[in-house]
Write a structure and sequence with these properties.
The protein has five helices and five strands. It is of the alpha/beta class and 151 residues long. Helix 3 packs parallel to helix 4.
Length: 151
């Protein structure tokens, strides 16, 4: 993208609870990339498709809900790694359904190879795609998917 062309839009990249600890939290499961590394990957992937990326992380469910609600006016699509809220939050599910934006759910680890409670997602039924177990590269795959499906 050249500096004179307008971006195609914005992709909101949401990271939920405990993802601020990436790089030090269970590196055998989540790897050694930090949240900053993930955000830079997302920004670069979005730019490569002519989009901007707006990255947020919060350990507070209400902050994530507010970001999803605001995306109705500011974003073309959403990439979300809701962390543990994936398995517990009907509120995040309802917010994603309500804004009706294309969305991709991302999990760094293969949740299906982990504890049984991680096998269920409240978000999967209301998103367009789910990327599981691709490490932090899953964010790039999610942005690639959105870039190919968005106008």
């Amino acid at each position: 993208m050249t500096s004179t062309s307008a971006p195609r839009g914005t992709i909101l990249v949401i990271n939920g609870p405990n993802l601020n600890l990436l790089g030090t939290r269970e590196p055998g499961i989540y790897g050694t990339a930090t949240l900053d590394d993930v955000e830079q990957l997302a920004i670069g992937a979005a730019a490569g498709h002519g989009f901007e990326a707006d990255c947020i992380q919060s350990n507070h469910e209400g902050d994530l809900l507010d970001a999803i609600h605001a995306a109705r006016e500011t974003a073309s699509g959403i990439v979300i790694n809701a962390g543990a809220y994936t398995h517990t939050s009907v509120a995040l599910r309802d917010a994603l359904a309500s804004v009706a934006l294309p969305a991709v759910e991302v999990h760094i680890s293969n949740v299906h190879k982990r504890e049984e409670f991680r096998h269920h997602s409240y978000l999967s039924p209301v998103v367009d795609s789910v990327i599981v177990g691709a490490g932090v590269h899953g964010y790039v795959l999610a942005i690639d998917y959105l870039a190919h499906t968005l106008p």
